[in-house]
Structure formats: structure tokens, C-alpha cells
Amino acid sequence: MDEYGDWSWPxxxxxLAEFGAGWSGTEDRVxxxxxxxxxxxxxxxAALHAHLHPGEADPSAPLPGVDDAGPxxxxxxxxxxxxxxxxxxxxxxxxxxxxxxxxxxxxxHTDIEPTxxxxxxxxxxxxxxxxxxxxxxxxxxxxxxxxxxVGFAVGRGILIVPVRLGVDPYGFIGKVQGLTxxxxxxxxxxGPKLGDEVFGLLARNPLTAARMADPIVRRFATSxxxxxxxxAWPYLVGLPRTAWTEDRLAxxxxxxxxxxxxxxxxxxxxxxxxFPVHLENHLRSLGIELDPPSTSDSAQRSSSGIxxxxxxxxx
Length: 315
What we know:
Blueprint: H1 9-17, H2 29-39, H3 42-52, E1 77-82, H4 88-100, E2 103-107, H5 108-111, H6 118-128, E3 131-136, H7 146-156, E4 159-164, E5 179-180, H8 190-204, H9 213-221, H10 226-237, H11 246-258, H12 260-263, H13 275-285, H14 295-299
Parallel strand pairs: 1-2, 1-3, 3-4, 4-5
Helix pairs in contact: 4-8, 9-10, 9-11
């Protein structure tokens, strides 16, 4: 918005308010506005882009003449995994980990029906994905397709995540900081480690952060271990107030009642409080009032608010 540098804050606020991103406060205006922009859905963001840059195409939009849905489920964050045939197992592990948190990955060697024209399916996936994750192995540049897949993503201007699996990013993505996994990583942990690293990058990157609210909530609410709950927690508390829809609130409230990896998990911060108590306190700090705890629940709390029993569930 350099061309709007001479605008006053009231003018900027008035414009962004029309698209659901206004901020009437006086502190940290730039950070607050950026935070609001990250939470907007695709429709308002596209409308704002069109207003500020009339006649300019949206680089994240699907290319003309292609079904917007592509080979994806509705409403998911779409990740195209570019990999060689020899590394389809690694790609499959990433896909499976991402599926647990509601992120959809397209892995060509397993996701294309044999009876369909595979090249058309790949092109449709590339035209409609939000992210390309490139598994850079020794044979990547020798593939007839992998470099073209990355080049397609470069042309669209979408996020590309190079994963160093023996090869550094090169060519058009040579300037992109790639993900590096530990050299001594046990192969059985490759999927979880790769999934966790890619998840964190998607949650932090401005091109994808606005689409990550559902996966962030889902990862916490459907947690499969105490370690995962702790890993998911920073992303959860990083969500702005505007991201907390009724559906997302319902999901975490249910987890606080029934998911043992949430109900019995303890954040390693020295307080001894379980995650349901941390969650209750956090949501209230955002102005989201929960039902008051039951009498028996209140009796289990000390005067400091720290629960005496590990199975305290304040929902």
C-alpha cells in the first residue's frame, strides 16, 4: 500500500472497515490491521485487492477455465506435494499427518484414479492449490515433472515450501528458505516431524495464515498425545478473537470434556494447571465468557484458581 502512504489513519480505517478489517483503537495500529487482514476470508480479501488494484489479477486465484474446486474437498487448505516416484512414501506420510488436522494434500502417485487422465488431474490440482510443498531429493531435478510443478507454482505466485531432503533449493526457488530435518531423524518419525514443521510454516506465513484457523483448532481438539497438545497450544492462543466462531468454540469445549490428551495434559509452565483451565482462562481473556463452573468444580480450585485435581474440567 505504498501508494496510499499519504492517507490518514481515519481514511485507512474507513476503507478497511468496508471489508471487515477496520480497527478503531489507537495502539499498535499497523500490527492490529495486519492481524485483522490475516483473519479475513477469501471473498473480502479478494474484494479489497480488487479495490486497491483495479484491473490486476489476483495471483492466488485459480487460472481461468478451470473448475475452482479441482480435486479437493470443499473448504480445505490445499497442499500439492511435489515429489519423485521413489519418495511417494515420504509424501504419503506427510499427507496422512496433515489429514489429521484437516489440511488436504494432493500426492499424485496415490491420489489419481487410474481411469482418469492423470496429467489433467495434476494440472487441475496445480491450478487450484494454495501451497506447493517440494520434497527436494537427489532425483528431484531429474524428474520430467517435478521442476515443472514448481515452476507452475512460481508463475501463480503461491507459497512454495522447499523441504531439504539432501538437496538445497535451486533455480527460481533458490532464494526461498527451505525446511531442514535432522540428519539423524529416525525414519518412523519422519512423517510427524515433517508435518509439524510444514504446519508451523503455514500458520506463520501471511499467504496461508488466514486459512489455518480450522487446522489449528482441529489439531488441538483432536490431539493424539500430550506432546502434540503442548505443540498445538501456541498456535491456538495465537488466534485472534475474530477467529473464534461458534463451531471452533464447540470443538475445543468438547475436547476439554472428552479428549484425554487435552483433559489430562499439563502445560509445562510451572503452574500445574491442566489444558482445560488454561483454555478457559485464555478464552475469557479474549472476552469470551463461558458457563460458570459447577459447585463441585469450584470446590476443587485453590484460591489462586489452580485446580487441585488433574482431571478438572471447567466446561
